[in-house]
Amino acid sequence: MLKALRMMRQHSTSEVAVIDSNDKLCGSVSTSDIALLAIQNDFSPVTRPIKDFIGSKSATVGPDGAAPAMCQCCKVSDTVEVILGKFLGGSSGKVYVVNDDHIPLGELQMSDIVRPLLDSALWLKQDSLDKMQALGS
After folding, report:
1. Number of folded domains in the chain?
2. What is the CATH number of the domain that holds 20?
3. Pair type for strands 25-30 and 15-19
4. Which residue among 12, 40, 75, 135 has its CA within the 20 to 30 Å range from the CA of 124?
């Protein structure tokens, strides 16, 4: 757990993925998890292996037998609609991109999805305004 805390601080992030000895995603740890421990005044997981903490977070295997239910995962082939559904249906601020063997390839945050959509919408709006101005002149 201490290593996870150090990684979050070093990388200025609020959540880190946890991988098992086969490099498969097995869960995540977030600052919210740590805050909950502080509220409960239970710091015992901090000195234990991360696998114990992940297990106590009710790390259940997903329906396909691969990724834990508390981790939101997607594949590179998933659509934006599917990924947005994972953000809306989960409690995490991240969706982890995994391959078919559930080995992490990367992570997505909501801003990674929303920013390009907003940029496209703003470009379309400006393009429409430019056309309207051209027609008026």
Report:
1. 1
2. 3.10.580.10
3. antiparallel
4. 75
- Domain span at residue 43 reads 2-136
Closest Cα partner for 108 from 67, 72, 77, 60? 72
Sign of the alpha-carbon torsion through 56, 58, 60, 66:
negative
Output the pTM of the full model.
0.65
Tokens 């805390």 label which residue? 5
DSSP-assigned letters across all residues of the chain: -HHHHHHHHHTT-SEEEEE-TTS-EEEEEEHHHHHHHHHTT--GGGGS-HHHHHHHTT-PBPTTSSSBTTS-EE-TT--HHHHHHHHHH-SSSEEEEE-TT--EEEEEEHHHHHHHHHHHHHHHHHHHHHHHHHHH-
pLDDT in tens, the chain (137 residues): 778 888 888 988 888 888 888 988 888 888 877 777 777 777 776 777 777 777 655 444 444 444 444 678 899 999 988 988 888 876 677 899 999 998 999 999 888 888 887 877 776 667 676 777 777 65
- Residue 14: count of CB within 10 angstroms of its CB: 16
